[in-house]
Amino acid sequence: MQVLKTEALALSYGEEMIIDELSLNIPPGKITVFVGSNGCGKSTLLRAVSRLLKPKAGAVLLDGKNIAKLATKEVAKKLAILPQGPAAPEGLTVLQLVKQGRYPHQSWLSQWSPEDERMVKRALEDTGLSALADRTVDSLSGGQRQRAWIAMTLAQGTDALLLDEPTTYLDMAHQVEILDLLFELNEKERRTIVMVLHDLNLACRYAHHIVALHGKTVYAQGKPEDVMTAETVEAVFGMRCTVSRDPVFGTPQFIPHGKGRRIDPRPQPNDNRLRPVYV
C-alpha cells in the first residue's frame, strides 16, 4: 500500500505562488478529499501529488522517495491520475480506452500479456461496463463516460487513485453513482483514493479524511466530523452556514446562509408540501 506525503511543499505558476509550506500525510487505504474555495490550489496540489507539476520547493514523497526523482513508468505503476474533464479521441471504444491503462506495464520485451487481459476485464467488471466494451466513449452518457475513465485508471493496477473533480458536470444521480463506485473500490480493495470535490455534503459523506485548503496551505485536516465546522466553512469559503447532522449518514450537513424564497414552516390547511414522509 503506497504512502503519500508532502513536506513543506511550494507550488507556483510563474511567479504566482499557489501553495506554500504545505505539509500533509495522506492516510493509506482511505478516501481523502481536498476542499476549498475556487482558486485555492486543490487541483494544483493534486497535480503535484501525481507528479504532473514540479514543486517550486519542498517535496512529494512516495514510499519515502522524492516523486520528482522517480521514473515516469515507475510512478504510473503506483499512482493512477484522472484529470478534470478528460477527452478521448473520436471513435475510441470503451475497451480501447481501458486498455490504455496497461501502457505503463508495456515494453519492447513485455508486450500484451494474460495479466494485462485479466486486469482490463476486471476493470470493466468492477465499473459495470463489460456490456458496453464495444461502444464508443463519445456515445456514452456522462456517468457511463466517467466510469469508463475510472476503469482505465483501475486497469493500471495501482494502489492509489487520484481524481480531480470526478463528479463535475454530472447530475445528482450520476454524482452519487460515481462516488458509490469509488467508495466500494475503497471498501473492497482498500485502495487509497484522493479526490477534489466541491460539494461539501458529499465530501463529508464519502471521505474518511478531509483536507481544507486556505491561505496557500492546509487550514484544517482530519475526520469530517472533527474539522468541518461552521467556523471552518466561514474561514475557508467566506460563507456563513448552519451545520446539522445528515439524517441518513450521520455526517456533517451544511445549509448555506443567503437569500432565497422562504416557506412558512407552519402547517397550512390542505397543504401537504411540508408534511413528513416516512420510508
Tell me what the structure shows.
This protein has 279 residues and is of the alpha/beta class. It has a domain at 92-153. It has 9 helices and 12 strands. The strands form 3 sheets. A 6-stranded mixed sheet has the order 6-7-8-3-9-10, sandwiched between helices. The chain has a 4-stranded antiparallel sheet with strand order 2-1-4-5, covered by helices on one side. A two-stranded antiparallel ribbon has the order 11-12. Helix 4 (114-126) runs antiparallel to helix 5 (142-155). The protein starts with a strand and ends in a 23-residue tail after the last strand.
Order of helices and strands: EEEHEEHEHHHEHEHEEHHEE
Structural class from helices and strands? alpha/beta
* Backbone shape: globular
Instruction: Report mean pLDDT, rounded to a whole number.
Output: 92
Oligomeric state as shown: single chain
Return Rg in Å.
Answer: 21 Å
Q: Low-confidence spans: pLDDT under 50, at least 5 residues?
A: none
Write out the strand line-up for the largest beta sheet, numbering strands in chain order: 6-7-8-3-9-10
Residues in β-strands, percent: 25-35%
Subcellular location: Cell membrane
GO molecular function: ATP binding; ATP hydrolysis activity
Organism: Paenibacillus oralis
Membrane topology: Peripheral membrane protein
